């Protein structure tokens, strides 16, 4: 494994993570084994990681799995999220370590405040399925969560916000951008979304 995006891989803002999918030893037609390349080889790596995480902690929710896989990924392209490999190559060791003791899933309350009213925003993509790209006036809200850890962790934990209850009239799922301040004793997480 060379930690480089395969030439056949697609790119885009919808990419969450990358997984090994080139030259993977697999079953092939004719009751044989050989190497194969493609998403059919990479997808089981991510699915297997989700299974490992659920095996280590059966209380994980769907969004916990999603964020654990993304935030534990090894960054292999541009620093941070990028359109080539998303958050990076999946990293089972880092992900599983964060769901076994002493780490635990802490759930906090998210405070929601109006950040900016009637703000002008340009949408390059459709803001809603029935609205074209363009400039719109909207309210921007901030969702923020603060947690304290006692006893403290040896290394910084992972953290994410999931805001539920959105409808077709408000499809933003507060996952496109998240600011994190994480230490061994506390977490401050925030995201902004448009209504």
The topology string of helices and strands comes to EEHHHEEEE
Instruction: Tell me, rounded to a whole number, the average pLDDT.
Output: 81
Helix content: 10-25%
Number of strands: 6
What proportion of the residues form beta strands (DSSP E)?
25-35%
Shape: globular
Number of domains: 2
Strand order of the largest sheet: 3-4-6-5
Quick one: biggest sheet?
A: 4 strands, antiparallel
Primary descriptors:
globular, 2 domains, 6 strands, 195 residues
Secondary-structure blueprint of this entry?
Layout: E1 24-28, E2 32-36, H1 39-56, H2 62-71, H3 92-97, E3 111-123, E4 134-148, E5 179-182, E6 186-194
Antiparallel strand pairs: 1-2, 3-4, 4-6, 5-6
Molecular structure report:
The chain is of the alpha+beta class. It has two domains: 74 residues, no CATH class; 84 residues, no CATH class. It is built from three helices and six strands, in the order E-E-H-H-H-E-E-E-E. The strands form two sheets. Strands 3-4-6-5 form a four-stranded antiparallel beta sheet, with no helix packed on it. A two-stranded antiparallel ribbon has the order 1-2. The longest helix has 18 residues. The protein is globular. The termini are far apart. The relative contact order is 0.13.
